Amino acid sequence: MSVTTAPVRPSAESVSFTAARLPRFAPALVGVVAAAAAGLPVLLLGWGVVAWAIVAGLVFLVALPLWARVVEGSRGATDRLVTGLVWAACIVAIVPLVSLLYTVVDRGLPRISSTFLTYSMYRTSLDQEVGIYHALIGTLLITLFAALISVPIGVMAAIYLIEYGKGKRLARWITFLVDVMTGIPSIVAGLFAFALFILLFGPSTRVGIGGSVALSLLMIPIVVRSTEEMLRLVPSELREAAYALGVPKWRTIVKVVLPTALGGIVTGVTLSIARVVGETAPLLLIAGLTTRTNFNVFDGRMTTLPVLIYTQNANPGIAETAGGIRPGIEIAWGGALVLIVIVMVLNLAARIIGKIFAPKTGH
Amino acid sequence: MAKSITVDSLDIYYGDFLAVEGVTMTIKARSVTAFIGPSGCGKSTFLRSLNRMHEVIPGARVEGKVMVDGQSLYDAAVDPVAVRRQIGMVFQRPNPFPTMSIYDNVLAGNRLNAKKMKRAEADDIVERSLKGANLWNEVKDRLNKPGMGLSGGQQQRLCIARAIAVEPQVLLMDEPCSALDPISTSAIEDLIHELKTEYTIVIVTHNMQQAARVSDETGFFNLKAAGQPGHLVEFNSTQKMFANPDNESTEAYISGRFG
Amino acid sequence: MATTVVADDTGRAKPRLGDTIFSRLALAAGIIILVALAGVFIFLTIEGAPGLVKPASFYGSASTFAGYVAPLLFGTVLAAIIALVVAVPLSWGIALVVSHYAPKRVATPIAYVIDLLAAVPSVVFGLWGITVLAPKLSPVYQWLEEHAGWVPFFAGPASTTGRTILTAGLVLAIMIIPIITAISREVFSQTPRLHEEAALALGATRWEMLRLAVFPYARSGMVSAVMLGLGRALGETMAVAMVLSAGGGISFNLISNTNPASIASNIASNYREGTPGKIQVLIATGLVLFLVTFLVNFAARWVVTRNERKLAR
């Protein structure tokens, strides 16, 4: 930014729109230089790839702002530094996710087989194959019953908040407590179910439905929140149109409001299922552990997939060959892969449902 | 199949706020009555009080009398839902139900009330209502397509068809053309003309030419002063209102000096 | 056709049966939520209250409940704070990339990947933490002990397994990044476009625009995002229970094996050996955790609502 300072003709001062800027390829150039500079100690000291990436990143973050400071001044340097930091944050956060997904697939995939998915861990002889079938059934049933409890309560509570309770003190309290519920640690939900069931049925009660109760405590606030959001999006004109046709309020809600919001509600429910299907702590407390397949949530212990992963990892058993992978660890990773696939499929399903049922605007 | 409406010193409130004060008028059966007036003068509020849609808004209430066929709409024993079945309404913006087809939209009033009917009977109602709304020829080949897929003017006529499918006594229209283009507007105006042989029609409009074109009688609403409730300034035959109104402010409004 | 609008002859409009039933059902669902939450509190109190006043033998090396719960509470808070220190700058960075730095076709996949991170079950994070992260960090801890041992945090002796409170904190950090990012992203992108353009029109660089227009607007949202992340980190059970090899009392030494467990992980690891009396003690600690997370979440909501009112005015 330079306004000519020694005017020959003062009346015709010219204004310059060009300021000193780094060339457009500057970040790329600095990047290459940083990578090379970091490569030197790596070669000399024998560091690993991780160390190299960290050093290269740091060199880049220092070098580019320095160069910018010389050419563009301090404002430009700060801007470039922040831009670099922000992108670095992004990359740093994605690294563990990639590592995690890679590890799960890498270590879990070899364990997956039809036996693994269709056998339980109950065996009558030592050389019998084992699998996670009992945990799959446990997860399925406990989550199903949790959904059966939470969806009606959650959806009806949201209907109360949006359609009936507006402005009432009770509604404000419920909204507030739903907020509180979202923050309940899952272990506390588990303790609640545990305390409730041992109070009702004796101190050694372990039963699948207890797990469902604990999970629904975690699910209800999610269902209420997403349903509320969706009901709010239904235009009030639709409600008025139905009222003007002489339709009672409850039929308006059931036949007009809910169908219009259906896609969003189903998406919310699916996401809430995905959220609780991976819960471990509450089920560890109240659903217990078993090696057999149990189809009755109202009687007896039930193992779920996350609990299986946790306990197999904690008690991995003895490897067949010295230095080999212990069988429990293998099962844990296989279970982790299955669990992640279930969660991802649920998330994907939620997105697809949301797209399909998105309110049609026509035109 | 049409009734007259008698309104006697009606006050309309939102909570403690008096929105419209002291309206008295008689709306004739089988005719078109138009309400005109500046924005915020309470004409839509008054219209909504005629089929108890007003009280959908929390805290809204009225004092005074609205009589239809010798019964007071605001009697304690009256069911607002039953009132709305007899007095239908068409809104400012077309609002077909997005989850329903054209066919189901027309039948919505019957179906949502869980009325059982045979297929032939349903087909008959759909055809009659759509014909009544001058929409039959445009949509008869795509009755199962979503109602939201129609143009704005078609959607509004679909809403009229939906309103007349439940065979109401009275049809209230709240600025039914304000969201439409001129061609759709004239289609709706023609329709209003045809409908008045069978229905009592009350229409709120911002467009004075429209009031002059479609209505038999006109009411002019205005605010007494800024911050004061709205009231009915003059109610007369449309011919007289536009040629030689009794009230000065009516003349000022109609000739475009304010509002 | 006769006009009948009168419902019956009793003089009152009969409320429709369907309407009555349906609205009662909705109300009942709302009340169930109230009852459930009250139930959480009541049952934890009933079952946990006896745990507050047990004979000294129930509290391990401590002699009172306070002495028993204090190190656990310390462990809970310490792990959560490590998680926040790491997660907050990263999350804000990612949120800025998504809302302001990246072009849309890059921002959308990044946002998607971060949401994916939120979907990973905590038990899988725990598994990854002990098998992948902890062994990788172990040499780093050795190095820290040798070269930075004069800092109290890194006094050592360094854990050879890497299963320290620092590792647990890092795993927690990865777990709360999606929460903090999601909320911050929302508030960043809600900044009025006009404010941003006003700043840019004054010749501000992008960073100056963020400081002038975006941060002041988003401040309370950013704070509440952090608080909600904190709430999650305090209550997280499995990742800590699996990663941390606990044993020891209050200590700021982050890389050794002498760290206290967190409340939640202590419950998960000890409930199975528990006698009924011991379980009452664990439930009492759960009640403490519930109250702490309740306060944190309450504070977060309070910040948000206060700001909403301020903006509404």
Automatic annotation (TrEMBL), chain A:
Protein name: Phosphate transport system permease protein PstA
TM regions (residue ranges): 25-44, 50-70, 82-105, 132-162, 174-201, 207-224, 256-277, 331-350
Pfam families: BPD_transp_1
Protein's job: Part of the binding-protein-dependent transport system for phosphate; probably responsible for the translocation of the substrate across the membrane.
Coiled coil: none
Family: Belongs to the binding-protein-dependent transport system permease family. CysTW subfamily.
Entry membrane topology: Multi-pass membrane protein
Keyword Membrane: yes
Major subcellular location class: membrane
Localization, UniProt: Cell membrane
Domain ABC transmembrane type-1: 136-350
CDD domains linked to this entry: TM_PBP2
This protein's UniProt keywords: Cell membrane, Membrane, Phosphate transport, Transmembrane, Transmembrane helix, Transport
Organism expressing this protein natively: Nocardioides hwasunensis
Automatic annotation (TrEMBL), chain B:
Key word Coiled coil present: no
Gene3D superfamilies documented for this protein: P-loop containing nucleotide triphosphate hydrolases
ABC transporter domain sequence ranges: 5-248
Alphabetized InterPro entries for the sequence: AAA+_ATPase, ABC_transporter-like_ATP-bd, ABC_transporter-like_CS, P-loop_NTPase, PstB-like
One GO MF term attached to the UniProt entry: ATP binding
Keyword terms, alphabetized: ATP-binding, Nucleotide-binding, Translocase, Transport
Protein name stated in the entry: Phosphate ABC transporter ATP-binding protein
UniProtKB/TrEMBL annotation, chain C:
TM stretches of this protein: 21-45, 65-98, 110-134, 164-183, 237-255, 279-304
Stretch forming the signal peptide: none
Keyword Membrane attributed: yes
PROSITE patterns in the record: ABC_TM1
Domain of life: Bacteria
Pfam families linked to this entry: BPD_transp_1 (PF00528)
Subcellular location: Cell membrane
UniProt keyword Transmembrane present: yes
Keyword set, alphabetical order: Cell membrane, Membrane, Phosphate transport, Transmembrane, Transmembrane helix, Transport
Start and end residues of each ABC transmembrane type-1 domain: 73-300
NCBIfam families for the chain: phosphate_pstC (TIGR02138)
Assigned protein family: Belongs to the binding-protein-dependent transport system permease family. CysTW subfamily.
Function (record text): Part of the binding-protein-dependent transport system for phosphate; probably responsible for the translocation of the substrate across the membrane.
Name of the protein in question: Phosphate transport system permease protein
This protein's encoding gene: pstC
